[in-house]
């Protein structure tokens, strides 16, 4: 036992002195990550909030042929600019992005309207232009609205109640609460947490075998009268300490930065106070020994530091797989799914952010299953350290 | 006292060590010599418990390296072929770490580290981080680390490789001091000059087996050679 603590203390101290690894483990991930995340979120919120009230511009050819329609569009905030373009020129102008969209009023527009037959309008737009498509949709809905108004007037003129044209009335009732709406925006948060958690112990895990071997310090270490499992346990423990530290820093940084992102303006509330932050950390803690053991195991099979780095880069993706799968299949939390590490933590974090109650059995299953798998991998790492092939 | 009895070790289809027996007595410096690939490192690794022999056993002061490896390891100081030290620790911290792993108390380890730093003339760099140490400084640190627990037996795998004259002299002086103090010293080398200069006993191995053993004079006499190098060449060619 004493040996485990000796190894732990040495690894902890040595890693503390490695500025490069310390930077990536405790600063880059935990502090820069949430800042970038919040900045990106804030930016996208600002955009979607701003686009709703931006005036829509519309170039119209032969505007003089449909004065009522244009008056209607202007009334709904469309900035109409008259252009002199025929059909071919309008198409070319949109294709060349000189105009976002062009509405061409046909020669017989007024005649058709007077006869009560469909009056042709040509709307040229580029559907692959994502930025313009939002405004395009608004123009289209305004045109449809104008059509409805004219239809109602015609029906009323014939002495029929315009309501016969509306046989059903659908009402959308959005039951999402501010807390659940923010979960959509924060969907990637749990993955980000798991990622920085793993990154916190990555360099120590590499160092435990590949690093020691490359430096030639592994063989001297194996000559000491200490059971080899204890050596690796000490190293895993040190990796755990850095991972827990990284997790705590990341969650704290998230809790602070998300206060300044202005989710409330879009009717979203961030349920991320100190109480929830602590609960999130506690939910993720069982994942720490599992991650440390997994990375140590993978690193033990590699020959060099560089090779270990490559493989562990892939290991960082492992916790995303269950989360991505669950997202694709639309899985909801269940007792069985709570036995899947990383997925169960993702569910727990989501529930905490949504301010939903979690059944105690779910929580127990998540903690037990994750810890059991972690213990299994730690035992495996101990066995691996006893193998002679470890020396390479 | 180190005794190896009928050691065997193979890696896949290659037999590295075959029925190898040797003994290194206390208060003697024993040299293990042989050409590259003769099985010197594999033999030493079995003695210092990092490799487990396929058959046979090695005893360190009567403790089996196979059955009681921890007791055997406690009586051994080891300078492995790859004597890497931790670059982010100072020389002193490297020594203290191994002291703690050998079960020394903190005070005892500190005292012993200070003693070795004096003995090996390491004062100048003892409290500097090991990153950027010269070959000689690294060797001294590794030696101090190997001796921190006052082992009765010292095993060194090609310790003079890549060292300058001054570092080699320090090493020689230290090994002689240890012999005088009654310790058992066993080291491997392929530099005959080094061996004839230092060793009381020589074990010549090739292809994993012992070709000859005895004092340098005995080995020369038996092969009818004028010096150890000549004897070595005759033994290898004849074998």
Q: What do these coordinates show?
A:
- The complex is a heterodimer of chains A (392) and B (239).
- With 392 residues, chain A is mainly alpha-helical.
- Chain A has 2 domains: 2-47 and 178-391, no CATH class; 52-165, abc type-2 transporter like fold (3-Layer(aba) Sandwich).
- Chain A is built from 16 helices and 4 strands.
- A 4-stranded mixed sheet of chain A has the order 2-1-3-4.
- The longest helix of chain A is centred in the first third of the chain and has 33 residues, at 19-51.
- Chain A starts with a helix and ends in a 6-residue tail after the last helix.
- In chain A, 37% of the residues are buried.
- The mean pLDDT of chain A is 84.
- In chain B, a hairpin with a 2-residue loop joins strand 9 (201-206) and strand 10.
- In chain B, helix 3 packs across helix 4.
- Chain B starts with a strand and ends with a helix.
- With 239 residues, chain B is an alpha/beta fold.
- Chain B has 2 domains: 1-74 and 152-239, P-loop containing nucleotide triphosphate hydrolases (Rossmann fold, 3-Layer(aba) Sandwich); 76-150, Helicase, Ruva Protein, domain 3 (Orthogonal Bundle).
- Helices cover 39% and strands 26% of the residues of chain B.
- The A-B interface holds A 2-3, 6-7, 10, 13-15, 17-18, 212, 215-227, 388, 391 and B 45, 48-52, 69-71, 73-74, 76, 78, 80-89, 97-98, 100-103, 129, 142, 145-146.
CATH C-level category of the largest domain in chain B: Alpha Beta
Major β-sheet strand ordering of chain B: 6-7-8-3-9-10
Low-confidence stretches of chain A: none
Q: Indicate how many domains the architecture of chain A comprises.
A: 2
- Tell me the series of helices and strands of chain B, N- to C-terminal: EEEHEEHEHHHEHEHEEHH
Taking all Cα atoms into account, the compactness measure Rg of chain B is 18 Å
Count of DSSP E strands of chain B? 10
Largest sheet of chain A: 4 strands, mixed
Radius of gyration of chain A (CA) equals: 31 Å
Sheet-strand content of chain A, in percent, reads 5-15%
Number of helices of chain B: 9
Q: How do the strands of the widest beta sheet of chain A line up side by side? A: 2-1-3-4
Model regions low in confidence, pLDDT < 50 over at least 5 residues of chain B? none
Given helix and strand content, the structural type of chain B is alpha/beta
* Structural classification of chain A: mainly alpha
Tally of separate helices of chain A = 16
Ends of chain A: how far apart? 27 Å
Total count of domains of chain B: 2
**First-residue to last-residue Cα separation of chain B:** 28 Å
């Amino acid at each position: 036992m004493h040996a485990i603590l000796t190894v732990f203390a040495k690894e902890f101290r040595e890693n503390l002195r490695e500025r490069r690894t310390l930077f990536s483990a405790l600063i880059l991930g935990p502090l820069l990550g949430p800042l970038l995340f919040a900045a990106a979120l804030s930016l996208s919120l600002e955009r979607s909030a701003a686009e709703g009230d931006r005036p829509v511009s519309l170039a119209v050819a032969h505007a003089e042929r449909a004065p009522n329609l244009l008056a209607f569009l202007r009334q709904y905030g469309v900035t109409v600019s008259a252009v002199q373009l025929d059909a071919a020129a309008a198409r070319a102008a949109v294709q060349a992005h000189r105009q976002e969209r062009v509405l061409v009023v046909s020669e017989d527009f007024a005649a058709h309207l007077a006869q009560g037959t469909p009056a042709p309008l040509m709307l040229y737009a580029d559907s692959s232009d994502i930025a313009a498509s939002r405004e395009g949709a608004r123009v289209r809905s305004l045109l449809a609205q104008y059509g409805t108004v004219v239809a109602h007037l015609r029906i009323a003129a014939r002495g029929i109640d315009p309501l016969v044209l509306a046989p059903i009335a659908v009402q959308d009732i959005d039951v999402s609460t501010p807390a659940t709406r923010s979960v959509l925006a924060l969907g990637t948060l749990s993955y980000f947490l798991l990622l920085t958690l793993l990154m916190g112990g990555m360099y120590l895990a590499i160092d435990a075998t590949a690093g020691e071997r490359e430096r030639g310090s592994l063989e001297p270490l194996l000559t000491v009268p200490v059971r080899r499992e204890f050596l690796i346990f000490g190293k895993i423990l040190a990796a755990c300490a850095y991972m827990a530290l990284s997790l705590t820093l990341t969650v704290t940084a998230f809790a602070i930065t998300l206060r300044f992102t202005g989710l409330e303006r879009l009717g979203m509330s961030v349920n991320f106070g100190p109480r929830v932050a602590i609960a999130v950390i506690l939910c993720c803690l069982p994942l720490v020994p599992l991650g440390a053991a997994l990375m140590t195991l993978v690193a033990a099979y590699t020959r060099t530091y560089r090779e270990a780095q490559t493989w562990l880069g892939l290991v960082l993706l492992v916790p995303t797989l269950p989360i991505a799968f669950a997202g694709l299949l639309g899985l909801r939390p269940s007792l069985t799914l709570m036995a899947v590490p990383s997925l169960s933590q993702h569910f727990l974090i989501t529930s905490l952010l949504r301010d939903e109650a979690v059944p105690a059995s779910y929580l127990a299953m998540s903690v037990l299953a994750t810890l059991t798998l972690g213990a299994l991998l730690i035992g495996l790492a101990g066995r691996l350290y006893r193998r002679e092939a470890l020396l390479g | 006292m180190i005794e190896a009895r009928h050691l065997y070790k193979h890696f896949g289809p290659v037999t590295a060590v075959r029925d190898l027996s040797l003994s290194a007595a206390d208060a003697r410096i024993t040299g293990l010599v042989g050409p590259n690939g003769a099985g010197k490192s594999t033999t030493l690794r079995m003695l210092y418990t990092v490799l487990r022999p396929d058959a046979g056993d090695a005893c360190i002061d009567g403790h089996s390296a196979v059955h009681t490896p921890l007791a055997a390891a406690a009586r051994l100081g080891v300078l492995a072929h790859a004597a890497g030290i931790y670059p982010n620790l100072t020389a002193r911290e490297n020594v203290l770490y191994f002291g703690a792993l050998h079960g020394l108390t903190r005070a005892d380890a500190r005292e012993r580290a200070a003693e070795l730093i004096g003995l090996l003339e390491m004062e100048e760099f003892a409290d500097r981080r090991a990153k950027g140490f010269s070959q000689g400084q690294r060797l001294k640190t590794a030696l101090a680390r190997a001796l921190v627990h006052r082992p009765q037996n010292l095993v060194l795998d090609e310790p003079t490789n890549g060292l300058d004259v001054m570092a080699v002299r320090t090493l020689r002086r230290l090994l002689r001091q240890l012999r005088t103090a009654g310790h058992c010293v066993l080291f491997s080398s392929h530099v005959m000059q080094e061996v004839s200069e230092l060793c009381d006993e020589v074990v010549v191995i090739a292809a994993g087996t012992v070709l000859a053993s005895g004092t340098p004079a005995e080995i020369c006499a038996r092969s009818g050679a004028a010096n150890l190098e000549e004897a070595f060449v005759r033994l290898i060619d004849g074998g």
